[in-house]
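cron nightly-structures :: item 1 of 1
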Amino acid sequence: MSEPKGYVEKSYERDTRYINDRITADGAESGWKAEPGRYRLVAARACPWANRTIIVRRLLGLEPVLSMGLTGPTHDSDSWTFDLDPGGLDPVLGIPKLKDAYEKRQPGYPRGITVPAVVEIESGKVVTNDFAPMTLDFSTEWRQYHRDGAPDLYPQALREEMAPVMKRIYTEINNGVYRCGFAGEQSSYEDAYDRLFTALDWVSERLANQRYLMGDTITEADVRLFTTLVRFDPVYHGHFKCNRQKLSEMPVLWAYARDLFQTPGFGDTVDFEQIKKHYYVVHRDVNPTGIVPKGPDLSGWGTAHGREALGGRPFGDGTAPGAVPEGERVPTEHNPWVGADGQLTVRTPGV
């Protein structure tokens, strides 16, 4: 998700006005029907909100029916751009800037150009950039296109319990790190800091005796927490001043994060270099020099976590996702735990 021009505010409030159309199984209400080859997911590996969609799409095996375009890790005040692609053009949409797809949908689009976004390929229009329901719809409205063995990330029986858990994770943790980093006054920062670590202590207590947030299997809730945790030490601890402790100094959350990272579909989507470059280069009012730190040491992500002792089956009655498509592999030099074939080089016992 890109941010509006100028990041630091007296007390940071995220603009949550999105193009909130839904792509549904029959398209009856929205006019947007889930169909193979009709849409393209535009994401950025740097962005935690977009990283959610990359993980869920991979876990569910939607790659053959929903193509993915990846922007570069940095952007200007105008738009995310396709500077990683030959000629600086998305090879399917044929555009240099994601803004072009927003303008196709609404000329003079007045808000931030954000990722993730789903674009209808034929019209070139953004269908939705409302990231919260997007992945839930991948689980429900795209179900007929899931791979054999896809996990149930949004179990019907758990949805009522999941709702407040995911809400607190979003308001206090996912968005909480931004409230710390973009606070323009000491009191606002300290309030955000206290709220963030109160919530991290809460999830730590929840995870002390169960392997995943909702019990024995991975759900959407775990995906949402993971994308913040994996960025914590590389970015949020220093850049956003979330420095009571590093993730690696919080035993339960560090073990939990490593467990997920070592699970196919999670760690193989993480590009640490792009993550650091995005935050440290783009947020010039937070980091005026644009210098990107060399650290931290990433070797710990592949170490044993011991969470298998809590039992559980990561994919429930399903199976791990298959090979990473060749064009979607994270470079080994950007994530040392990803091999040349795009697969994780570490595996958690029981996965």
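cron nightly-structures :: done
The chain has a mean pLDDT of 94.
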